């Protein structure tokens, strides 16, 4: 049940999607190209994996704390716009620090600022769905939230490839983040959060939030494990020339199919009033795609695997936000609880390099890594029957 009745229009949804694209570009441009290249320059081929793991782990740890704190502050202020603005400024500052980083400490500091900062607008954007979007539109708008993230992945990657993996790549991303977010600040107005006790009775749905959190965590871990060493996988295992360009190609294929599947799935999930079938399909396709990456590391198969991973991720993100907002226990703590939910998206960034680094360097390499990733996707599928509150 939802307290929101008025439907959102195309103008609002467009501005919302552009803001999310900007935030995702600020995150994933560095993760896919800029940070790996910077780690290789600072630590060399022998130490690049360890340095990247260290920096991304520190950033993810900071992110894991920052997101719930931004959510708590947003609920206390009863406002989303100040959180969006303050976090964006902090994240841009971190990108500029990274643009001049020439030591491990400066690189880690810059990435921590990016992670802490960009969690502010992320928390605000997630809460806006619960504040402003009625239940029968949450599949569509939630899909926009997810699809915009993957469009931001390709945008951030494209910027890094086009401008270069040095300082100017970070500067270009730092410009893109606020430029894309500005439209939302013009069209969004904070609305007062009506006390749930005054309007309807909200009951904690039998621990459903915890199961939804765990499924989100597992599937985000799958996505993080696919991305974290993609550049190195393509160069060292598939042995392509110009690995950065191939990262862009694989990412474009992935995003294209994820975007189609995500938006179509969101619309269909609203029309059918079904969410679980899309989560199940996503988990199965993610398992198939990562298994192919593990077993057949040749370019045509990797491209096919990226299609499967893209469709699988799209099927899941089509309903991810609709699922999470459905199982929230209280309207007055919406941003706080969604901040906790977002930890399920940021914690995998912390764990992915920690899990991947020893596997890649000595415990079976990329075949073991991607078979483990497939098994994690299937574990999420096995938990899905626990979400009894959903259809």
Automatic annotation (TrEMBL):
Q: Which PROSITE patterns match?
A: MFS
A single GO cellular-component term on record = plasma membrane
Keywords of this entry: Membrane, Transmembrane, Transmembrane helix
Please name the Pfam families in this protein's record: MFS_1
Subcellular location, principal: membrane
> Where does this polypeptide localize?
Cell membrane
Q: Does the record bear Amino-acid biosynthesis in its keywords?
A: no
Question: GO molecular function, one example?
Answer: transmembrane transporter activity
Regarding the membrane, this protein is recorded as:
Multi-pass membrane protein
For this protein, the parts annotated as crossing the membrane are 12-30, 50-70, 82-101, 107-129, 141-162, 168-188, 209-232, 244-265, 277-296, 302-323, 335-360, 366-384
* Residue ranges constituting the Major facilitator superfamily (MFS) profile domain according to the UniProt record: 1-391
**Domain of life (superkingdom):** Bacteria
PANTHER family, per this entry?
Answer: MAJOR FACILITATOR SUPERFAMILY (MFS) PROFILE DOMAIN-CONTAINING PROTEIN, PTHR23528
- Record protein name field: MFS family permease
């Amino acid at each position: 049940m939802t307290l929101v009745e008025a439907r959102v229009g195309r103008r609002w949804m467009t501005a919302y999607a552009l803001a999310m694209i900007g935030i995702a570009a600020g995150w994933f441009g560095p993760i896919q190209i800029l940070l790996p290249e910077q780690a290789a320059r600072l630590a060399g081929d022998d130490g690049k994996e360890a340095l990247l793991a260290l920096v991304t782990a520190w950033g993810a740890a900071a992110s894991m704390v920052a997101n719930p704190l931004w959510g708590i502050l947003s609920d206390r202020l009863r406002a989303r716009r100040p959180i969006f603005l303050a976090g964006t400024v902090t994240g841009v500052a971190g990108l500029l620090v990274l643009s001049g980083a020439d030591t491990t400490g400066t690189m880690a500091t810059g990435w921590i600022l990016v992670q802490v900062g960009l969690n502010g607008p992320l928390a605000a954007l997630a809460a806006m769905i619960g504040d402003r979007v009625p239940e029968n539109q949450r599949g569509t708008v939630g899909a926009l939230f997810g699809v915009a993230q993957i469009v931001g992945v390709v945008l951030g990657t494209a910027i890094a490839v086009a401008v270069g993996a040095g300082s100017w790549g970070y500067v270009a991303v730092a410009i893109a983040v606020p430029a894309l977010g500005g439209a939302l600040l013009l069209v969004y107005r904070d609305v007062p959060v009506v006390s749930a006790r005054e309007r309807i009775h909200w009951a904690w749905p039998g621990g459903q939030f915890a199961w939804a959190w765990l499924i989100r965590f597992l599937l985000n871990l799958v996505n993080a494990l696919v991305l974290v060493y993609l550049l190195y996988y393509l160069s060292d295992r598939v042995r392509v020339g110009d690995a950065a360009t191939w990262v862009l190609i694989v990412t474009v294929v992935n995003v294209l199919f994820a975007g189609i599947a995500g938006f179509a799935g969101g619309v269909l999930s609203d029309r059918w009033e079904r969410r679980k079938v899309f989560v199940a399909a996503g988990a199965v396709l993610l398992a198939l795609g990562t298994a192919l990456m593990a077993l057949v590391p040749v370019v045509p198969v990797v491209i096919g695997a990226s299609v499967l991973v893209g469709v699988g991720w799209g099927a899941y993100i089509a309903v991810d936000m609709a699922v999470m907002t459905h199982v929230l226990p209280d309207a007055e703590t919406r941003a706080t609880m969604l901040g906790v939910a977002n930890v399920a998206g940021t914690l995998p960034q912390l764990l992915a390099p920690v899990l991947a680094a020893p596997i890649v360097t000595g415990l079976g390499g990329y075949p073991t890594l991607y078979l483990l990733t497939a098994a994690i996707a299937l574990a999420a599928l096995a938990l899905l029957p626990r979400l009894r509150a959903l259809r």
